[in-house]
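Summary for the lay section of the report: proteins are chains of building blocks that fold into shapes. Here we show the chain for HTH marR-type domain-containing protein and then a coded description of the shape we predicted for it.
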Amino acid sequence: MNQLSCSIDRDKSTITALVEKLVHLGYVNKGQDPQDGRVYRLSLTDKGRELQPVFDKVSEALLAAVYEHFTADEKAQLMGLLNKIGL
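The coded shape description reads as follows.
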């Protein structure tokens, strides 16, 4: 959970609660790493993978809204800056 909490900049306890809810709802599988019992591995279930098209549409709509007033050059410049800082 540490790596995930760092990746999305959220508190570990928040991530743990969210993951447990996703497991309970059947969207995510959670299991201990066989080589390191301190580490948990997460994977999407079939039910979780079925949501991918929905998330793709939401993501496309958000990006379209963000970029709608940008020129092509401004979009390219923004993407370059975001890549430079690792986003």
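Put simply, here is one thing we learned. The radius of gyration is 17 Å.
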